[in-house]
Design goal:
mainly alpha, DUF3102, 5 helices, 105 residues, two-stranded antiparallel ribbon, DUF3102 domain-containing protein
């Protein structure tokens, strides 16, 4: 799993906003997929960027997460995104606070 630094996390949201703007404002109908090919991005990846930027706020807690994790959180029902979850370790965290990196003690 890739963990982005703050700048990388913010970039995910900015890329999503820009992709959505191009799709809705800058291209003729039917040109979006061709344009994505020209920038070497597949449709699924573009959809993930857009979903994240539409569904989540670009706050400090999510800036350290990568696209795949942010996408998983963005597809959760809104009522579940801020619910505390009990981990196997006994810790209690919200989904955006979780990582796959083990904590050394």
């Amino acid at each position: 799993m890739v963990i982005f630094n703050r700048t990388g996390g913010q970039a995910i949201f900015e890329i999503g906003r820009r992709l959505k703007w191009v799709k809705e404002n800058d291209l003729a109908h039917g040109e979006y997929l061709k344009w994505l090919e020209s920038i070497n991005m597949d449709r699924g990846q573009a959809q993930k960027f857009i979903k994240v930027s539409d569904s989540l706020s670009n706050d400090s807690t999510s800036n350290h997460l990568g696209l795949e994790v942010l996408y998983m959180i963005s597809t959760m029902p809104e009522s579940e995104r801020d619910k505390l979850q009990k981990l196997d370790s006994g810790e209690v965290k919200k989904p955006d606070e979780m990582t796959a990196i083990p904590v050394r003690q």
